Amino acid sequence: MKESLLQEIHEFSLWGEHADHFEYLASGKDGNVYTRDDFVIKVFKEDGKSSDDGMKLHRLENSIYYPQVEAYTNDFMVSERIYGDTFYQLVGHDDELRIRYENEIQEAMIDAHLVGLDAFDLHNHNIMLTNNGEIRIVDVGRFGTETTTLQFGIFRKLFGSSSNRHHRKHRRHRHHSSTSNHHHRHHNRHSHSHSYSRRSYSSS
User: Fold this and answer.
1) Average pLDDT, stretch 153-182?
2) C-alpha–C-alpha distance, residues 21 and 41, integer Å
3) Strand partners for 118
4) At what angle do helices 162-175 and 102-114 cross, to 10 degrees?
5) What are the DSSP calls for 89-117, one per residue?
6) What's the chain's Rg over C-alpha atoms?
7) pTM, full prediction
8) Domains in the chain: boundaries
9) Spatial distance between the Cα atoms of 37 and 54, rounded to a whole number of angstroms
10) Which CATH class, in words, describes the domain spanning 3-80?
């Protein structure tokens, strides 16, 4: 990311300067979401609780199911722009897509768990089906590090069986795979970026 663009984002997040350079996307509980070029910018509200979104995405950088974070502070976060539709945009509150992509969603939850994050607020507003048919989790604001009764119920279901424990071990091994695999994953991410239509996620 160019330093000049980062400075513009900084000034926009603090004082609203360069507002005409940013396209508004959505408002969430903890911030407003904008886009610029191939980036998504989340400007946190003063009373927001998810100003650590950037840190969480940084911890998840080895997972294919989350956007790559470019920069983050206590005032804003910049991540790659994911093009597609949220499950809510596609089916509303219907569970059809969640059932169809259950394996991918569980993989995303396992990836979060492996870096110490509990994905307990995974709803149709923050799960996206990209224009390339892939699953992305586009809002990690409510991912936490403390186990609650709700979270325990979710992860007991995921990791309770021997097959799931074996699968989790396999995922851990894959996350520490060679640099060539890491490069291949990033190549796949960027190779699709120019074929997407002009649609991006809404944060909740």
Assistant:
1) 38
2) 12
3) 144
4) 60
5) HHHTT--HHHHHTHHHHHHHHHHHHHTT-
6) 17
7) 0.70
8) 3-80, 84-177
9) 19
10) alpha beta
